[in-house]
Structure formats: C-alpha cells, structure tokens
C-alpha cells in the first residue's frame, strides 16, 4: 500500500506572476527589489506612494494641496456616475486624486515633485491633476527648486470631465514654459504606461526626459495605431528602448538607480 502525504495549501499572497516573463516570483523578493522581477528585470507598476518612498529621503516629503477633489461639470454617467467612480477609486487607492505633489529631498537636495498613480482611473489627467501640476510648477519657480514630474498614465485626458480635462494640457504646458523661461530645471520620468494627453503635454516638455526600462510611451496605444494605419508596426514600437534609439529620450534608468541618477543630474545641472 502506498501512502501519499497530503499537500499543504499554499498561503495566499506569497507569490505573484511576472507580466514580463510569466514566472511565479516570491512577492517579498519583488518588493525588496523595488518591485522589479528578479528573473527578467520587468518593472512592475507601483502606487505613487511606494514610488515616493523609493525616491525621496525618509521623512522629508511635505505633501501640498492633499484634499483637492474633482467636481462633476458634465453630470457624467456610464455604468456609474462620475462622483461614484471617484469615490470607488479613493477607497481602492487611499488617494484623493490621481497625483500627489509636494516638496521633498533626494539625497539631501531639495526638489518639488509630483507623481501620478496608474491605479487611480488609470492615472488620467482631470482638472485636479492639471491644477496640482500647474501649482507645483509655480511653487518650484517661486522657491527656485528643481521640478521632477513622474508620469504613469494609461488614461490620458479624463473623458468624464470633457473639455475641462483637455484644458489641462494647455495649462500645464504653459506653466512648464514659464518655469523654463525663468531658468528652472525640469526632469520628466516616464513609467509604464505614459500615454495620451499626459504624454502630449507636460510629460514630454522636460529639459531631461528619463524612462524606466520597457515602459510603454506614446499618444495612442500601438494596437489603436496598427488598426488605424493597417500596417505592422516595428518591433518594440513605443517602448522606452525604441524611443531612446530614435532620439525621443535622454536616458533609460532602472528603478534601482533612479534616485542616485536624479541626484546626480540635479547636482550637475541646478
């Protein structure tokens, strides 16, 4: 008679599947490695507060305008109303909106920093996101500090706010232009994904443009473009590596090196 040992149940939450290589990787290892796959170097999408903790010196961040929330100018409704959707996203992410902004230090160098969150309505830019970016840019100009904006938006301009959202493209671009005309240093960091109206405005206007490895970057997504032009796209189209090769980016920096590289650029250029 053969006896088989009963297989123990695997505790939930110990493992996660990598979207890059498909491997099952130990979740704690991924978290300890700054949310990067140890097998293939795939950079997982992360919440803006996690990214903030990776970049800014401990206890140095002062958040600004944390309680701004969007209104509902169009009385928009699809499967749910816009206020209901915003409320759901707030509960899910713990954020009031798709961006946090404030003043902090990176290796003891003071900066103004803003980070969009791909988990809040895909990091899309509504009136609050645009207003916060404009304000943090003006504050950077007032205090004569470098400005760092980190983008992760797969939603572009937020359709639920219509033209009020589209207006933010011009508003943020104008604020960036005034800041640069005043001699300010602006560094844009593009993460996966950086698309739509965000990419067509403030995210692409920096003095130095950096991307994380293999980030998807563009206006429309590759599937939409391919279906529109009815042609096959080049291999790696709209990846950070493709854009670096074609002169759109200044550099690609792995997440593990991002803080050190930002500090180096600020020390050299500011």
Can you characterise this structure?
With 270 residues, the chain is of the alpha/beta class. It folds into two domains: 31 residues, no CATH class; 225 residues, 2-enoyl-CoA Hydratase, Chain A, domain 1. The protein is built from nine helices and nine strands. The strands form two sheets. A seven-stranded mixed sheet has the order 3-4-5-6-7-8-9, sandwiched between helices. It has a two-stranded antiparallel ribbon with strand order 1-2. The protein is globular, with a radius of gyration of 20 Å. The N terminus is likely disordered.
Question: Looking at the structure, what is the overall shape?
Answer: globular
Query: So, CATH architecture of the largest domain?
Result: Alpha-Beta Complex
Provide the residue-averaged pLDDT: 92
CATH secondary-structure class of the largest domain: Alpha Beta
Number of strands: 9
What's the structural domain tally? 2
Strand order of the largest sheet: 3-4-5-6-7-8-9
Q: Which stretches of 5+ consecutive residues score pLDDT under 50?
A: 1-8
Relevant CATH superfamily of the largest domain:
2-enoyl-CoA Hydratase, Chain A, domain 1
Sheet bearing the most strands, described? 7 strands, mixed
CATH fold label of the largest domain:
2-enoyl-CoA Hydratase, Chain A, domain 1
How many helices does DSSP assign? 9
Work out the strand percent: 15-25%
Q: Alpha-carbon distance between the termini? A: 77 Å
Return Rg in Å: 20 Å
Structural class: alpha/beta
Order of helices and strands: EEHHEHEEHEHEHEHHEH
Helical proportion, percent range:
25-40%
InterPro entries: AcCoA_carboxyl_beta, Acetyl_CoA_COase_Trfase_b_su, ClpP/crotonase-like_dom_sf, COA_CT_N, Znf-ACC
Function: Component of the acetyl coenzyme A carboxylase (ACC) complex. Biotin carboxylase (BC) catalyzes the carboxylation of biotin on its carrier protein (BCCP) and then the CO(2) group is transferred by the transcarboxylase to acetyl-CoA to form malonyl-CoA.
GO molecular function: acetyl-CoA carboxylase activity; ATP binding; carboxyl- or carbamoyltransferase activity; zinc ion binding
Keywords: ATP-binding, Cytoplasm, Fatty acid biosynthesis, Fatty acid metabolism, Ligase, Lipid biosynthesis, Lipid metabolism, Metal-binding, Nucleotide-binding, Transferase, Zinc, Zinc-finger
């Amino acid at each position: 008679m053969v006896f088989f040992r009963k297989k123990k149940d695997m505790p939930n939450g110990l493992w996660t599947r990598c979207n890059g290589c498909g491997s099952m990787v130990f979740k704690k290892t991924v978290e300890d490695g700054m949310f990067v796959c140890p097998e293939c170097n795939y950079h997982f999408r992360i919440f803006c507060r996690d990214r903030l903790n990776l970049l800014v010196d401990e206890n140095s961040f002062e958040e600004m305008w944390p309680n701004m929330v969007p209104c509902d100018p169009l009385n928009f409704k699809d499967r749910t109303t816009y206020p209901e959707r915003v409320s759901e996203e707030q509960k899910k992410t713990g954020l009031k909106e798709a961006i946090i902004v404030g003043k902090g230090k990176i290796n003891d160098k003071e900066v103004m920093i803003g980070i969009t969150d791909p988990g809040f309505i895909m990091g899309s830019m509504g009136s609050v996101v645009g207003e916060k970016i404009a304000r943090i840019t003006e504050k950077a100009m007032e205090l004569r500090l470098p400005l760092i904006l980190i983008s992760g938006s797969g939603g572009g301009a937020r359709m639920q706010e219509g033209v009020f959202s589209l207006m933010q493209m011009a508003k943020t671009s104008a604020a960036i232009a005034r800041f640069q005309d005043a001699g300010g240093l602006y560094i844009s960091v593009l993460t996966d994904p950086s698309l739509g109206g965000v990419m067509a405005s403030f995210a692409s206007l920096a003095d130095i443009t950096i991307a994380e490895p293999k980030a998807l970057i563009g206006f429309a997504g590759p599937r939409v473009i391919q279906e529109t032009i009815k042609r096959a796209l080049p291999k790696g189209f709209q990846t950070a590596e493709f854009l670096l090769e074609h002169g759109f980016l200044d550099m690609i920096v792995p997440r593990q090196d991002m803080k050190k590289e930002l500090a180096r650029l600020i020390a050299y250029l500011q």
